[in-house]
Design a protein that fits this description.
This protein is 46% helix and 17% strand. Helix 4 packs antiparallel against helix 5 and helix 9 packs across helix 11. The longest helix has 25 residues. The N and C termini lie far apart (74 Å).
Length: 430
């Protein structure tokens, strides 16, 4: 707390129903205190003086301990903000101001002076944060922030406790992570599943931490230690398509399903350039100069200059005359899977990932794992396995460090296994 204010129970104030009223106590001067009733009463045995919290063993007839705890924190937060406001005025006694306005948060006087309790509502601040970021960050970052807000709202409904700035602590973090890992409901392929993967949870925590730091820097909330918001990241064994597989896809006869041709061509083009969907789907005539593409990446805002292989030039220039077909990412990801299935790339692939402390396994045909991002991964991996220097690949992919680049392609093990296999070929058999 920023002020000498806390929740207490007065043992002498026993009510007829054997409960004690919980008060907000404010020490506004040495040896001078005032108490404001919260309207919430519980038996003394279910109150923890050290933590100023209600026991989880509170019988249901006295109310839900989580909802009562949330209400107490909300009242405490309002009291703190009233004290803050009184102190900023300079000529107002905070104790008297608190006593006068605590029970009337919508008092006309507070409206006249512009005091708004909603300004310190966590979700109000997230919306304000999104408004501030719109136009200065890319769409994927805005989408990640909105997803963070959606997950917080979902957890609030699940836990039946209002999420405020004051409740963000280690206990909240542990409950939130457990919920995101095992409980949050999701619809995937029209099926209800529960739980996010570690990297998705990590992005949510990262966005929450960045948001809180922004609010601190603007002095909307006081500075606090955010070390309890621990980052999470997992190396994922995503698939890529080899050069031989890309050749089969490129030469695939799609005369029977001509509407799939544009999806095949765009996918192959992405595999030959290393572009993200947002980049290869918006190539313009002006981007093509001296046989190369000069593109400012949508995500990083950095310029990359990409030379075109003959096959890429044939697709982009000769076939489409630098006029990229207009397709949505959703349709692209759906129909590319069908193209690759028709190409016969159907071998079962097992992908492992962590859920909590458990290793989960999922087996699907290889085409079912493919998405727009597979093209970018395929470009980087194939160039790496072909011996192209890392710094040259990174100049196109946009990776800033070799460490993240190697994690991204996951090709070191493949390369080393291939080298060992070549050594074995020169050794005698049993």
């Amino acid at each position: 707390m920023r002020h000498p204010i806390k929740l207490i129970i007065k043992k002498r104030d026993l009510r007829k129903d054997d409960t004690h009223l919980i008060y907000i106590q404010y020490c506004y001067a040495p040896a001078k205190k005032m108490a404001l009733g919260t309207g919430i009463g519980i038996p003394e045995m279910y109150w923890n003086n050290k933590t100023s919290t209600i026991s989880i063993n509170l019988p249901d007839k006295f109310g839900d301990h989580k909802m009562l705890g949330a209400e107490l924190r909300e009242q405490l937060r309002k009291a703190e903000k009233l004290i803050d406001f009184a102190l900023t005025k300079g000529n107002t006694c905070p104790a008297q101001f608190l006593k006068k306005h605590f029970r009337k948060p919508n008092d006309k006087y507070l409206d006249q002076v512009g005091y708004d309790f909603n300004k310190l509502n966590l979700f109000y601040q997230i919306d304000d944060y999104i408004r501030n970021k719109t136009g200065s960050v890319n769409d994927s970052t805005l989408r990640a922030i909105r997803n963070m807000k959606k997950h917080l709202l979902s957890y609030q409904e699940y836990d039946k406790v209002s999420i405020t700035f004051d409740c963000l602590d280690t206990r909240f973090y542990e409950g939130f992570i457990k919920y995101l890992t095992f409980e949050i409901p999701l619809i995937r392929c029209n099926l209800l599943v529960r739980g996010l993967k570690i990297n998705t949870i990590g992005k949510t925590v990262k966005q929450l931490k960045t948001f809180l730091r922004d609010r601190m820097s603007r002095k909307i909330i006081p500075f606090s230690d955010l070390s309890f918001l621990k980052g999470m990241e997992e190396e994922v064994d995503n698939v890529y398509l080899s050069w031989d597989e890309l050749s089969i896809i490129y030469q695939l006869d799609l005369s029977g399903v001509p509407f799939l041709v544009k999806y095949r061509d765009l996918f192959v083009l992405a595999c030959l350039t290393g572009f993200r969907f947002s980049d290869f789907s918006s190539i313009q005539f002006e981007d093509f100069r001296d046989g190369m593409l000069h593109v400012v990446q949508k995500k990083t805002k950095s310029l990359v200059i990409v030379p075109l292989r003959e096959d890429a030039r044939r697709i982009l220039v000769e076939k489409y005359d630098l006029k990229i077909p207009n397709v949505s990412m959703q349709n692209f990801n759906y129909y590319v899977k069908e193209v690759i299935r028709l190409a016969g790339i159907t071998q079962p692939i097992k992908i492992c990932y962590m859920r909590g402390c458990q290793i989960m396994e999922e087996i699907k045909p290889k085409y079912a794992w493919v998405s727009s991002h597979t093209a970018r991964r395929s470009f980087c991996t194939n160039e790496y396995l072909a011996g192209t220097p890392n710094d040259l690949i990174m100049a196109i992919s946009g990776h800033k460090t070799e460490k993240t680049f190697r994690i991204y392609i996951k090709a070191d093990q493949i390369k080393k296994a291939t080298m060992i296999l070549k050594l074995w070929q020169g050794q005698p058999n049993l």
